[in-house]
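OmpA family protein, pasting as requested.
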Amino acid sequence: MSRLPLFAAATIAVLSLGALHAAPAHAWADKCRNNVDAQIDDEFRIYFTTSDNELSDEAIERIDRASSMGKARDVEQICIIGQASKQGDSKANASLAYNRAEMVAKAFVQRGWRRDQIVVESSGESWGFMTRLFTSDSSADRRVDVTFSY
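Structure tokens follow.
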């Protein structure tokens, strides 16, 4: 058996990986995918009640802390990703997740952040800390994650 085809395939794979790393470190077109502070701290998770997108007092406190920390760290971009539980219609859940993220984004704007510094996304139905085998409503699913890019 010739090793040449295997060597050629390995070479192509390695070169492909190198091309992926050639992208700029902070490509705005990549939106939140360029996140250098991608570890989501539970302190910056904003939780919601079922079928709701209103900010609780605790959510506002978390946003205040995140906003203060972001300003102290000279954050260039805030990434806000909304999620919803698996209950009900998946399209409605995706919309709810986006609306939750928008509510959080508006709160950051009220705290002095420019709207063009904020990226809002919806990941639709979340699986929280549960497996796909369970479809029960979980607070881990009803949240918005806030992360920063520098």
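Note for the archive: The longest helix spans residues 90-110.
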